[in-house]
Amino acid sequence: EGNLPVQKSATDKKVFVVAKGSSVNDIINNLAKEDLIRNKVVFLYIVKSTGIENKIQAGSFRLSSSMSAKEIATQLTKGTHDEWVTIIEGLRKEEIAEILADQFDIPASEFIKQAQEGTLFPDTYLVSKDASIDTILGVLNTNFNKKYNQTLRAKAKAKGLTDNEVLTIASLVEREANSRASKREVASIIYKRLKNDWPLQIDATVQYVLGYQEKDKTWWKQYLTSEDLKINSLYNTYKNSGLPPAPIASPGLDAIEAVIDADPNTPYWFYISNSDGSKMIYSKTLDEHNSNIKKYLR
Predict the structure, then answer these.
(1) Per residue in 35-85, pLDDT tens?
(2) DSSP alpha helices (H): ranges in the chain?
(3) Whole-angstrom Cα distance, residue 141 to residue 159?
């Protein structure tokens, strides 16, 4: 009885999503909620007795209430129509293009041409295996507008910041800071420096200009030389005052909120992170800053 379809004559199919890391119980409860199975206990028995418990995949499936419980269980092991793709905070669009080209049938160079730096929102997405660049950009863009919403934009505007300025500062914060608290402090220091016409002198902007490092196989050169800091580019915040023209990476929500809540009255003017990047050290004067550099970085 419990193996029978919920509604044998049903013709429509539902999209059923198995989230990453779902337990069998989660999946069974969701199937019951969606009216795709008659009996949870029978379904569990089918899954256990056929040994397909560990073969169920994360992704999205087209299921119908005209399918028997066994058909549904088998379908969940059959390979999904979609792929999960994760974009972490602080990647530049070339790095995101590499991840996507790896998982989908799209050329990285074409994605790079069409993507707008700073708006490729870091998150985990479920995307159709045969998605085009336009579709993927659409999915990323929709999420970006949902997360960087009207409320946040209005707060930014009230602070006198354009969307491009918010995202640009947030991208610097994302590359330079390593925790929610440090993002808030770094955002405040950058904001304070901008307000007082101090040069930002941010390494990440120079790393961005230098681009791919063949030797280390990275987009972000770890150790900058004094020659590197002289490179001619609007993005070089050692040579130019003010902000670079556009974001240098994709910031997450913490970094964006840190910028919008930045406090220009922070007592600090400088920050460094220690050599393994685990700790941020702030200073109020250049002398203090220089002694921190000696202490933590030399």
Answers:
(1) 899 889 999 998 888 888 888 888 888 888 889 888 898 888 876 778 888
(2) 24-33, 40-49, 69-75, 93-103, 108-114, 133-147, 150-158, 163-176, 180-195, 203-210, 253-260, 286-297
(3) 24
